[in-house]
Queue: 2 jobs
Job 1
Amino acid sequence: MPLIIEGGRVPARWLQERNSRPLISPGVARGHECVRLGLINNMPDPALEDTELQFFDLLDAASGNAVVLLKLYSLTGIPRTDRGQRHLNSFYFGLDELWHSPVDGIIVTGTEPRQPSLKDEPYWSSLTDVLDWAEQNTISTVFSCLAAHASVLHGDGINRHPLPDKQFGVFAPARTCDHQLTSRIAGRIRFPHSRWNEVRANELASCGYSVLTQSAEAGVDLFVKKKKKSLFVHFQGHPEYGALTLLKEYRRDIKRFLGGERETFPTLPVGYFDPAATQLLNDFQQAAVAKRREETVALFPEAALVHGLQNTWRSAAISIYRNWLEYVTSRKAEAFSFAAMARAGGVRSTVASGERA
């Protein structure tokens, strides 16, 4: 079934993607027969719309036979340009709408950190409101990258640890235990990572988290913990990324180096470029270091790199999100059946009481 964007606010780029595909009216999906999700997209403005499309595409591919209804939300306190704020005003809802909307699950993205401590970020208060609300009002919640770090800090006091260099590239974690989320995945799991901090397996385990995937190179990848009514699912990586996302991030980091916003030339993403592309980029690095000016970014060989890039993690990402949607669907069906039995039991009890009277 195709993904349905709820609320009458559908970004134009997604409508273009759907031109040749059938549309389903939200009215055909009854409450217990669909999955209602919220996407709280906190990504910075340059990545805001790309992130929308990445999650739209991933959920659409993972939905299988389920009807997935998705509504867009935004946190307060995320720095925005005028253009970014106009986009939010056009297509997103505020958290006041979320508190009163029936959802089965939410997905919370990360954003670029600006403060050494997450608790000093301007959006911290609204993010913790989401975390507390999700424990009681969702079947499951997914946290991506920085949002995962915020979740464990707020819920269990687990601090993130700064890394000596950016954890950047495509890594192949191993499954460390059996779990529904990682079942039926054919082949090797590979996921992109892009972060300056990490949370560690021993600290997570001591607070009751189950680490599902982990690698020696990138550390913890996917981990979970049941929080009251909700299964909290945490990714330190980005299974939703498209094939070109790491390329765009690498070019952005180079531009920051050339503009003096960072001191060191960025390290190549691991496991992403082929040998020919790596040689091109090494040659560009030499030129960029020798001529450190913003206009040098125009020499970045993007056109020569694009065609050789592949989304080697897509099948694993679809499998995990399909497993997640199936988990949400099955728990929702169980709750509906239990409520139906309870109502039937109440009717029988009333009848029996009347007969005894």
Note: Residues 20-26, 349-353 have pLDDT under 50 and may be disordered.
Job 2
Amino acid sequence: MRIVVVGAGLAGLTAARSLQSRGHAILVLDKGRSPGGRMATRRIGDATFDHGAQFFTVRGDAFGTQVAAWEADGIARVWCHGFTPGGDGYPRYIGTRGMNAIAKHMALGLDVRSGAMAFAIRRAGPGRHGWEVVVDDGTVHPADAVVSTCPLPQTFSLLFEAGVDMPRQLVADDYERTLALLAVLDGPSGVPPPGGVQPADGIFSFVADNAAKGISATPAVTLHAGPAWSEQHWDHGREAVHDALVDAARPWLGPARLVDSQVKRWRFATPRTPWAEPCWVAPEGSLVVAGDAFAGPKIEGAYNSGRAAAAALSS
């Protein structure tokens, strides 16, 4: 089959690799500059930041097998075993060169079109079978089947003219927002070992020292504001948000001087009510909706959702 996958996050890349291994012709479309989705890594000068997902854990055998393969390839490694003194025994994994490196590794051998924003998913015209995926530049990609892994509100918009009745819970689901500060420093930060902390200050949900993680040659700290703070300040001007985050970040920056900084807005950070099943299959069977809103908003959940989407189209 000709299958178009919308979204090159981990769910989309996992589905695409699985489907291609079964002999299907796969095209992956993503609006970003590179694959990855929430597995995002950014550089500011010599500093490197994971500014989306900071780490991942392994609970199930299928994902454990995949992570072991990433470790063998030098793509992923253990960062630590918890963020409290003594840890909790569970390994936290990261991309060896940043989280985005895992996504780029998963994209190898796939036809991934970055900078291609899907505009609509519609049924093929009269007398034709399947679907058409329309890109914002007017390009139309015919497909026998489609997998959409972008955030649910975006998927719903893409399917507006297709006449697909998604379950009400999926349509109504919303996402928590995250405002993030990326801070480049001239010396070591105030983040304690192992370089990650989940503060109880009511502002930040996670603070990561990317140098301590081993992905940045220059002191670089990622600070994620929690959903309540992010919602409250979402519509404030960029300068006002930046100044408020810098002020709140002072305890985590330590004695170092702030050299450079940027604010990132993550509109679809965490689904509020994840769908219990790993994916949703439209009644006709040739359209599957998957992603990190299914079976848990975590890296492993996205991986399992991608595998389930591929299985649904191959059954």
Note: The chain has two domains: 2-41+56-173+274-314, 175-271.
